[in-house]
Design goal:
- The chain has two domains: about 5-135, Schlafen, AAA domain (Methyltransferase, Cobalt-precorrin-4 Transmethylase, Domain 2, 2-Layer Sandwich); about 150-380, Heat Shock Protein 90, CATH 3.30.565.
- Helix content is about 30%, strand content about 20%.
- It has helices spanning about 5-10, 30-45, 75-85, 135-145, 165-175, 185-190, 210-215, 245-260, 270-280, 325-335, 345-350, and strands spanning about 20, 50-55, 85, 90-95, 100-105, 115, 125, 130-135, 195, 205, 225-230, 240-245, 290-295, 300-305, 360-365, 370-375.
- A six-stranded mixed beta sheet has the order 12-11-13-14-16-15, covered by helices on one side. It has a four-stranded mixed beta sheet with strand order 1-2-5-4, with helices on both faces.
């Protein structure tokens, strides 16, 4: 890292990927613990590379510097490798600014998140400029993103497999060239992770993905699986629609309701393109929020539980690392071919509103939601 980049970092405020320390004494156990904890938190936080800068006051940004003997790269690497599981990729550089030496620890983007401290087993993350333990939903999302946990195949304890829609199951297996009947039904459903059985002594139960894709009455088990649409286009009162069912039924139901409520010249297909992706890629581990849609005269908004998984900026979002089990099932089952066309969808959405206003995409880490705001209906009224 050169001096110019270091100065630019110092000008920035502390955040999930940037932390300043006036000093840190790794000769003592307390200092080693603090260093490992902070590096772990930065590594687990979303974004690109992170930086821990030592020798700079966090509030004033005053450069106080460090002594030559304060830190050594071999020592820092050893602290991280011994205390963090798995070891976090880092590097240490010393930079001279205004006749003072500062230390910059670069925390690289690793492929083995989430990281934890060996000592207490805790997972840490940055919330703004502070370090905190990861919450359950954050830990689940981190595991999902790195393919260490497939939430769709997790069992729903005490669920009734009789809720499965036989027609959907037959359609799915027929597409694979498999004839399903009573003799092979349970083995096929189990091997495909639609249902689950831990032992002979226990009954079969549905998996999360099995309930979402193959059960029309899954709201009995998953009340958060719904689209709540609030129509505020008519003056005087809000009209609320609750759209439930298996995921394909939800998409079909949403398209019908939207076609009924919006003007014919409004780009309804673009809104449906977004809701299709939201249904597919929302975070189904968030059990306390549903998909929310609001129709206003000035704008139309869609709020999805969980941020969208992305590689870089929100120019094009990489959805490929969440709910792949569900994706494969919907590609097969959707006779309209909507899910087979996934990819680059947001570019199409923007083009659909060209000349009528801007479509805004918001990935909110703080609120753990993904939000899309479309131009209002008034732009399409003659």
């Amino acid at each position: 890292m050169d001096v110019k980049k270091a100065k630019n970092l110092i000008k920035k405020e502390e955040g999930p990927k940037l932390d300043f320390k006036r000093t840190i004494d790794v000769q003592y156990e307390s200092g080693r613990k603090e260093l490992a904890k902070d590096i772990c938190a930065i590594a687990n936080s979303r974004g690109g590379r992170g930086y821990l800068i030592i020798g700079v006051e966090d509030k004033t940004k005053r450069i106080v510097g460090i002594e030559d003997t304060d830190l050594q790269e071999e020592q820092i690497q050893q602290i991280v490798s011994m205390r963090c599981d798995p070891p976090i990729p880092i590097s240490l550089e010393f930079i001279n600014i205004a006749d003072k030496k500062i230390a910059v620890i670069t925390i690289y983007v690793g492929s083995q998140k989430p990281y934890q401290l060996r000592e207490n087993g805790a997972f840490y993350v940055r919330r703004g400029s502070t370090t905190d333990t990861m919450r359950k939903q954050e830990l689940i999302s981190a595991l999902q993103e790195n393919m260490e946990l497939n939430i769709e195949t997790c069992p729903i304890i005490n669920s009734d497999i009789n809720l499965i829609d036989e027609k959907l199951v037959k359609r799915y297996f027929n597409f694979q060239g498999i004839e399903i009947d009573e003799s092979n039904k349970l083995p096929l459903l189990t091997s495909s992770s639609i249902i689950y059985k831990e032992s002979e002594a226990q009954d079969y139960c549905l998996t999360l993905g099995g309930a979402l894709v193959f059960c029309k009455n899954n709201n009995i088990l998953l009340p958060h699986n719904m689209i709540k649409l609030i129509n505020k286009l008519d003056n005087g009162f809000d009209e609320v629609y609750i759209i439930k069912g298996d995921l394909l039924d939800m998409l079909d139901g949403f398209e019908r309701v939207l076609s009924m409520l919006l003007p014919k010249n409004y780009p309804i297909n673009a809104v449906c393109e977004v809701i299709k992706d939201v249904i597919l890629y929302r975070d189904y581990t968030i059990y306390y929020r549903e998909i929310e849609v609001s129709l206003n005269y000035n704008n139309i908004s869609i709020i999805s539980p969980g941020i969208m998984v992305q590689e870089k900026e929100l120019r094009e979002i990489n959805f490929t690392r969440r709910n792949m089990w569900i994706y494969e099932k919907l590609v097969v089952l959707d006779e309209k071919g909507r899910f087979a066309k996934s990819g680059k969808g947001f570019s199409k959405v923007k083009r659909a509103f060209k000349g009528h206003g801007k479509v805004i995409f918001i990935n909110s880490l703080e609120n753990n939601i993904f939000k899309v705001i479309f131009p209002g209906v008034y732009r399409f009224v003659d």
